[in-house]
Amino acid sequence: MRIVSWNVNGIRAVHTKGLFEPFIKQLKPDIICLQETKAEQHQSPVDLMGYEEYWHSAKNKKGYSGTAIFSKQVPENVAFGMPADIASKYGLSGDGYGDPNEEGRIIAADMTSFWVVSVYTPNSKEDLSRLSLRHTQWDPAFLEYMKRLEEEKPVIFCGDLNAAHTPNDLANPKPNEGKHGYTNEEREGIDKVIAAGFVDTFRLFTEGKGHYSWWSHFAKSRERNVGWRIDYVFVSKAFAPKVKEAAIHADIMGSDHCPVSITL
């Protein structure tokens, strides 16, 4: 079984470029987790034969954020957003940008023997104006949600976490220290995910620098591979032995991100 995660940065844009169906043909995923769909289901031109589609779109901001799961297997159950009690516990009622739990950032599907979750973590913003929300509210709330799901069965969560974890996860760590996407607070959020027992699957198989999933549009960053690894697939520790491969598909175009995947 192959599970693929991709921040498409607008599913309509990728489809218009003629690059979504070739991505499916190349990777042949059983489950597709999308982020930043920027559309509601009825607006999507994509209609994949053999896949069930589940969408969670932003409620009050059309064309913004959004996640989806496309699956060949029909899930036992699908849950949308952060559970209300966890959101309340961490005060996730919004900031100057809005309520992150109304932005379609989480969708979870019960695949019988495991949960699969697509997540699009809030960006802390260039001026770090959303860093506090992320660090003190979103990150701990999301981790508590994943641990709750894990009480039922193993969890696979994947998506754009909007942060590079270690110096090996971005081409230029020193000049980016303290900047959005590479602050101590954002990196600490990933530290806590790992401390809680979740495994960064890519690092099970590949060490070192040069492996990135997002590139700026400026200065031919992608051509020069001056990028960041901010898209991840994490699994429960007990599930890690089932992961036979983890990959970054930098050759697949269509977005400023590329897909990442695991094979079970």
- Average of the residue pLDDT scores: 97
CATH superfamily: Endonuclease/exonuclease/phosphatase
Number of domain units: 1
In DSSP terms, counting alpha (H) and pi (I) runs of 4 or more, how many helices? 7
Helix proportion: 10-25%
Structural category is alpha+beta
Low-pLDDT parts are none
The proportion of residues in beta strands is 15-25%
- Give the biggest beta sheet: 6 strands, mixed
Distance from first to last alpha carbon: 5 Å
Number-wise, the strands total: 14
Radius of gyration: 17 Å
| CATH top-level class | Alpha Beta
- As for the CATH topology, it is Deoxyribonuclease I, Chain A
Notes on the protein architecture:
- The chain has 264 residues and is of the alpha+beta class.
- It has a single domain (2-263), classed as Endonuclease/exonuclease/phosphatase (Deoxyribonuclease I, Chain A, 4-Layer Sandwich), CATH 3.60.10.
- Helix content is 23%, strand content 24%.
- A 6-stranded mixed beta sheet has the order 3-4-2-1-14-13.
- Helix 4 links the parallel strand 7 and strand 8 (155-160).
- Helix 4 (131-150) packs parallel to helix 6.
- The N and C termini lie close together (5 Å).
Task: Describe the SSE topology.
Elements lengths: L1 E6 L3 H6 L3 H8 L3 E5 L16 E5 L10 E5 L5 E4 L3 H6 L16 E5 L4 E6 L10 H20 L4 E6 L12 H4 L7 H12 L2 E3 L1 H4 L8 E2 L11 E2 L2 E6 L8 E4 L11 E4 L1
Parallel strand pairs: 1-2, 7-8
Antiparallel strand pairs: 1-14, 2-4, 3-4, 5-6, 6-7, 8-12, 9-12, 10-11, 13-14
Entry summary:
This protein is an alpha+beta fold. It is built from seven helices and 14 strands.
